[in-house]
Design a protein that fits this description.
The structure is a single chain. By secondary structure, the chain is of the alpha/beta class. The chain has a domain of about 260 residues: Ribonuclease Inhibitor (Leucine-rich repeat, LRR (right-handed beta-alpha superhelix), Alpha-Beta Horseshoe), CATH 3.80.10.10. The strands form two sheets. Strands 3-1-2-4-5-6-8-10-11 form a nine-stranded mixed beta sheet, covered by helices on one side.
Length: about 375
C-alpha cells in the first residue's frame, strides 16, 4: 500500500506540474523608453510566481486599457521585482507588436532563442539584476532590429562569441558582469564592435555542456541555491522522464487491477489519511497564497496612502503659498490706501495754507493801498 501511495503522490505531482498555467494583470500606460518613444506598456501588477517552466505559460491577461487602446497597441512589456524564474511564454498571442522587454530584479534564471524569436520587432531588451549565467548561441538571431541591450549585474560566466555579430543596428550594449566582462557602448556602433571583441576574448570560457538537440541554458541557478556551474537541458532526458512517467502510470494501473477489493477495504483508512494529507497541504499552500496576497494588498494600500499624503502636502503647500500671496496683496492694497488717504490730507492742508496766504496777501495789499492814499 505504501508503494501505491508513493506512486499516486508522484503521479499527482506530475499532473499538477504539467497542468500549471499563469494569469497576469496589466497596468497600461504610455512611456518614453531609451530608443522607442511614446510606447504603450503593459506593466505587471500582480505577482504571477513563475517558478517552473510549465507555469511560465501565460493563459490570460487582464487589466483595463487606456481609451482607444487595445492589445495590438501594446509595444512594451515591463516586469519589476516579481517572481519570474523562467521567461514568460505565450505573450505573443496577446501582444504581437512588442518592441521593448524589461524584466528586472525578477530572479530570471535563463532566456533562450525560443523565448525571443517570437518578438521579431524587438528594439530594446533589459535583463538586469537577475541570476543569468549564459547568453547562448543564436540568442538574438530572430531580433535583427535590436538597438539597445542592457544586461547588468547578473552572474554571467559565458557568452557565445557570435551572439551579437549579426545585429547591425545595435548602438547601445551594456555588459557589466563581475565574472565575465565590464564594458559599455553608448550610441556608437564602433564602441559596440569593441565590446563584442572583448566578449570574444573574455567571456568564451566554454564552461557548459551542450546537447545536439537543445541549446545551453542561460542559467541553472534555482531561487534557493547558489550554484555557478552552467548546465544544459538534455532533450533525451526529458523524453526518458516522460517515458518513466508513463511506466509509473501503467504500473499504478496494474497494481490497482491486481489488488483485491478487500485489500483496499482493509487499507481504506490509509488512503483516507493520504488524501487528507494532500488536502491539508493544498490548504496550507492556499493560506500562504492568501497571506501573500493580503500582504501585497496592504503594501499597495500603504503606497496609495503615501502617494495621497504627498499629494495632500503638495496641495497644502500650494494653498499656503497662495494665501501668503493674497495676504501680501491685501497688505499692499491697504498700505496704498493709507498712503493715498494721507496724501489727500496733506494736499488739503496745502490748499488751506495757500488760501490763508492769499487772504494775508490780500490784506497786505489793502493796507499798502490805504497807506498810499493817506500819504
Amino acid at each position: 500500500m505504501a508503494k501505491i501511495a508513493l506512486l499516486l503522490f508522484f503521479t499527482v505531482g506530475v499532473y499538477l506540474e504539467l497542468s500549471a498555467s499563469t494569469s497576469i494583470e496589466c497596468s497600461y500606460k504610455t512611456h518614453d523608453w531609451s530608443i522607442v518613444k511614446n510606447a504603450y506598456f503593459c506593466t505587471i501588477n500582480n505577482n504571477p510566481s513563475i517558478t517552473t517552466r510549465e507555469s511560465a505559460t501565460i493563459t490570460s491577461i487582464s487589466g483595463p486599457h487606456e481609451s482607444g487602446k487595445t492589445n495590438s497597441d501594446v509595444g512594451g512589456f515591463y516586469v519589476y521585482s516579481k517572481t519570474i524564474n523562467y521567461f514568460p511564454r505565450g505573450l505573443e498571442t496577446f501582444f504581437k507588436n512588442i518592441k521593448i522587454i524589461d524584466i528586472s530584479h525578477c530572479n530570471l534564471m535563463e532566456v533562450h532563442q525560443e523565448d525571443l524569436k517570437l518578438f521579431p520587432k524587438l528594439v530594446e531588451i533589459y535583463l538586469h539584476y537577475n541570476p543569468l549565467e549564459v547568453l547562448e548561441e543564436g540568442l538574438f538571431d530572430f531580433n535583427p532590429d535590436l538597438e539597445f541591450i542592457y544586461i547588468w549585474n547578473n552572474k554571467i560566466v559565458h557568452i557565445e562569441p557570435n551572439v551579437f555579430d549579426h545585429l547591425s543596428k545595435l548602438r547601445y550594449l551594456y555588459l557589466q558582469e563581475k565574472n565575465c566582462i565590464d564594458a559599455i557602448a553608448e550610441n556608437s556602433i564602433s564602441e559596440v564592435k569593441n565590446v563584442i571583441q572583448a566578449v570574444k576574448s573574455q567571456c568564451n570560457k566554454n564552461t557548459m555542456t551542450t546537447s545536439t538537440t537543445q541549446p545551453p541554458t542561460t542559467s541553472t541557478q534555482s531561487p534557493t541555491t547558489t550554484s555557478t556551474t552552467p548546465k544544459s537541458i538534455n532533450f533525451e532526458s526529458c523524453l526518458e522522464l516522460e517515458s518513466k512517467i508513463d511506466n509509473i502510470a501503467s504500473s499504478l494501473k496494474d497494481l490497482i487491477g491486481q489488488t483485491p477489493n478487500a485489500a483496499f477495504s482493509n487499507n481504506n483508512n490509509q488512503c483516507d489519511a493520504f488524501t487528507d494529507a494532500l488536502r491539508n497541504q493544498s490548504e496550507a499552500i492556499g493560506r500562504i497564497d492568501s497571506r501573500t496576497e493580503a500582504f501585497t494588498e496592504a503594501m499597495d494600500t500603504k503606497l496609495e496612502i503615501l502617494k495621497e499624503n504627498v499629494e495632500n502636502t503638495r496641495t497644502l503647500s500650494l494653498r499656503q503659498m497662495q494665501n501668503f500671496r493674497d495676504e501680501v496683496k491685501t497688505d499692499h492694497a491697504g498700505l496704498l490706501a493709507a498712503i493715498r488717504l494721507r496724501t489727500d490730507k496733506i494736499e488739503k492742508q496745502i490748499k488751506e495754507i495757500k488760501e490763508q496766504n492769499q487772504k494775508i496777501e490780500d490784506k497786505l495789499a489793502k493796507i499798502m493801498k490805504s497807506l498810499k492814499i493817506d500819504n
